[in-house]
Specification:
Length: 270
């Protein structure tokens, strides 16, 4: 279960604006991005032993990193996990986005995932303190990078959030990750120039399907992890492999990224 920690420590890097000097001001980031065009396994649906040729693995923040592999820590940073809504309502209700009727704004594509209210600067810093604690745990657990998901939540907010809100919150997350010597990846949202915000690499889902892969490679060169899914068929994956195998990381997965051994498990790379 992906529940937030019961007790959260506020990091210095998550201090609200107005502090004289924060740790963020003193840190010169020098994170190491994932190796370019390396073999990646995407294990968000559950951890399992990767194949021998795998060099990078992405796992949920509640799972372990892997010694000897570049490990990326997944954090749902812009909306709740589907099983954590009650926790957020109980402990941080004011940080959840509500519509004009006072109802929680839910991601229509992912039932039970409620959007965070990043429209207000103070709330962005309060949320960043929580995410910063999770980032710190990722670092303590041996992860090399973080993958904050749902940068594009603003597009599903019914107009209550905009791109500027997302960029402002992302910039805080980037600084906080770098202060912990973690690289940080832009997850999707090709319309945002994540490299300008300080992201170190991209995780681009279905970029071949949506003809966006070039947008990410323009920003990050070979430091792009492309994930195509079987429910779109295999044409986009095959096309990406024919065009860019060896130039960026390209893999094919089942939509639910289930662990190896599950009947629905699919994994391939080129």
């Amino acid at each position: 279960m992906r529940w937030p920690a019961g007790a959260l420590l506020v990091l210095t890097v998550g201090c609200a604006p107005g502090s004289a000097v924060t740790e963020r001001d003193r840190v010169v980031p020098d994170p190491t991005p994932p190796p370019a065009a390396a073999v990646v396994d995407y294990q968000l649906g559950g951890a399992y032993e990767p194949a021998d040729e795998v060099q990078i693995v992405s796992r949920d923040r509640t799972d372990d990193s892997i010694d000897g592999l570049y490990s990326i820590c997944y954090v749902n940073a812009f909306q709740t996990q589907p099983d954590a809504g009650t926790w957020w309502v109980t402990h941080h209700d004011d940080l959840l986005l509500r519509d004009d009727a006072g109802e929680l704004v839910e991601d229509e594509g992912w039932p039970g995932e409620y959007l965070f209210d990043i429209s207000v600067e103070q709330k962005r810093y309060e949320l960043a303190a929580i995410m910063g604690d999770w980032f710190a745990q990722c670092a303590a657990d041996g992860f090399d990078a973080v993958e904050p998901d749902n940068l594009d939540s603003f597009t599903r907010s019914g107009g209550l959030l905009d791109q500027a809100d997302a960029e402002a919150f992302a910039a805080i997350l980037v600084a906080d990750a770098h202060a912990l010597d973690l690289a940080i990846g832009q997850k999707n949202t090709a319309e945002i120039d994540g490299a300008e915000l300080g992201f170190d690499f991209a995780v681009a889902e279905e970029c071949a399907v949506y003809d966006e892969c070039g947008d990410y490679t323009t920003m990050y060169g070979g430091h792009v992890i492309e994930i195509e899914y079987t429910d779109n068929g295999r044409d986009a994956y095959a096309s990406a492999c024919a065009e860019a195998a060896g130039k960026r990381s390209i893999l094919l997965r089942d939509r639910d990224v289930v662990p190896a051994g599950d009947p629905d498990y699919v994994y391939d790379h080129c």
